[in-house]
Known about the structure:
By secondary structure, this protein is an alpha/beta fold. Helices cover 37% and strands 12% of the residues.
Amino acid sequence: xxxxxxxxxxxxxxxxxxxxxxxxxxxxxxxxxxxxxxxxxxxxxxxxxxxxxxxxxxxxxxxxxxxxxxxxxxxxxxxxxxxxxxxxxxxxxxxxxxxxxxxxxxxxxxxxxxxxxxxxxxxxxxxxxxxxxxxxxxxxxxxxxxxxxxxxxxxxxxxxxxxxxxxxxxxxxxxxxxxxxxxxxxxxx
Length: 189
């Protein structure tokens, strides 16, 4: 591979990942804890200081994460909240305050995807933390990093195979509006 080709296949700076651990999941099945333990994400607690410019993945946010968010993600990072789907209430995980309106950080929802994990296989949007962060990396232009993140998780690479067309189309969207149009096209079939 020529050196000019390698600069196009790899982003100039990897996206820093953080996991806000709420602690209400079974520790043996908690993908967020494993990402932290394996050194793939930084651990946050509800009382931790997080970069206020970081993108917070929030399934109830209005705006989807899109390739347009890549510069902010590379400079400030992406934060996923690791909590049980059964304990989401009022649009946010219990004990985790939503970002303040007008704060420099951004809450973004992931585009529509199917879960590949054994607990929620095939369900729209019910991703585990590892899948959520991998999807974010893929949409932000880092498909290789997304695949590496999912290695070692049951259903991890199945998640990518199951969503390959969707992820590719989302990653090519030029704006959040184009991404929403792709979602509608993909899920109205």
